[in-house]
Automatic annotation (TrEMBL):
Organism, as annotated: Aegilops tauschii subsp. strangulata (Goatgrass)
Protein name: cytokinin dehydrogenase
Family recorded in the similarity comment: Belongs to the oxygen-dependent FAD-linked oxidoreductase family.
Cofactor: FAD
PROSITE patterns assigned: FAD_PCMH (PS51387)
Length: 366
């Protein structure tokens, strides 16, 4: 195996390794660690969605994690025991969702887009509308299998090799390559009540978002977005099947009018003692959205979690998915959110802006 890796390195200034097992990754890194080749950059690539090129290695070696078999083993705990899934680092979240739902289970925390790898998001954070309640995906991992820079395969957890465990989660691949992860599971709801409310005042919008994340026993998901123009209103509604009769006045080019949307969701386990409609009513009466502009729809849990896929397919049909997608994610403290909004509006022209601006609350203790 070492001679194979040597030929890869000497006959090409850069190379791609397509491992068939974690052992292939271990052999590569062991060879590089013991060789006299000097520093060679190695990067793990999942589905290729890294924002700053972390999945590339200039004059180095890219490890294609999707080449690993997408192994998923479910463990359904009995009463008092946790349920979890042991998953290959190159498997996608959509694959884990499909398999776990067959057992009536699902991970607790998600990303908005599911066609990305387990190891990829765990090397970042993994954030979506459930983060306020369950924390990011890296807070819902029980154990990892990691190949270190020396080629050692190490099992780590909060109590075993804890320093490596903490470094690898959110470590951008700098402390090892995640080849397997044990993901915490919970009972999956059968359906989801998905709700959208509209606002014409930013302060009211953010206040209601804070209200919703203060009710984790009732609310299961909270996000929100800025509605700059007709395009941003309708493109964000592709996956939302409710008929919205919201026709806002966006003002003029010189004096634009900006709107905001909160979306939240309540899980429906379809138990006799729970009425989801009543839960949504109890939540919404405390909100201060524009009168008569609250919309709701019931969808399957799978369709709700996979909602961005519909937007992707729409963009693909228009030839817009494969173009460059400039993207920026940032955490902003509560004290600075108004300044960020003003900065955005000072530098964006609502009459021709095409894209999505998400703003949603997280809790620091998660």
């Amino acid at each position: 195996a070492s001679s194979d890796f040597g030929r890869i390195l000497f006959h090409s200034p850069s190379a791609v390794l397509k491992p068939q097992s974690p052992r292939d990754i271990s052999l590569l890194l062991s060879f590089l660690s013991a060789s006299s080749l000097g520093k060679v950059t190695v990067a793990a690539r999942g589905a290729g969605h890294s924002i700053h090129g972390q999945a590339q290695a200039l004059d180095g070696i890219v490890v294609e994690m999707r080449s690993l078999p997408a192994e998923i083993e479910l463990h359904k705990g009995g009463e008092g025991d946790v349920s979890y899934a042991d998953v290959s680092g190159g498997a996608m979240w959509i694959e884990l969702l499909e398999q776990s739902l067959k057992a009536g289970l699902a991970p607790r925390s998600w990303t908005d887009y599911l066609y990305i790898t387990i190891g990829g998001t765990l090397s970042n954070a993994g954030i979506s509308g459930q983060t306020f309640k369950h924390g990011p995906q890296i807070s819902n991992v029980l154990q990892l299998e990691v190949v270190t820079g020396r080629g050692e395969t190490v099992t780590c957890s909060p109590t075993k090799n804890a320093e490596l465990f903490s470094a690898v989660l959110g470590g951008l691949g700098q402390f090892g390559i995640i080849t397997r992860a044990r993901i915490l599971l919970q009972e999956a709801p059968q359906k989801v009540k998905w709700v959208r409310a509209f606002y014409d005042d930013f302060g009211t919008f953010t206040k209601d978002q804070e209200l919703l994340v203060s009710m984790p026993d009732m609310v299961d998901y909270v996000e929100g977005f800025i509605v700059l123009n007709e395009q941003s209103l309708h493109s964000s509604s592709i996956a939302f099947p409710a008929n919205m009769d919201f026709s806002p006045d966006f003002g003029t080019k010189g004096s634009p009018k900006i709107y905001y949307c909160i979306e939240f969701a309540v899980h429906d386990y379809q138990r006799k003692n729970t009425n989801v409609e009543q839960v949504v009513e109890a939540i919404s009466v405390q909100m201060s959205h524009i009168a008569s502009h609250l919309y709701s729809v019931e969808v399957s849990y799978f369709d709700f979690l996979n909602r961005v896929r519909m937007e992707e397919m729409s963009l693909r049909s228009s030839g817009l998915w494969e173009v460059h997608h400039p993207w920026l994610n940032m955490f902003v403290p509560k004290a600075g959110i108004r300044d960020l909004r003003d900065l955005l509006m000072d530098n964006i022209s609502p009459d021709n802006f095409e894209g999505l601006i998400l703003i949603y609350p997280l809790l620091r203790d998660k």
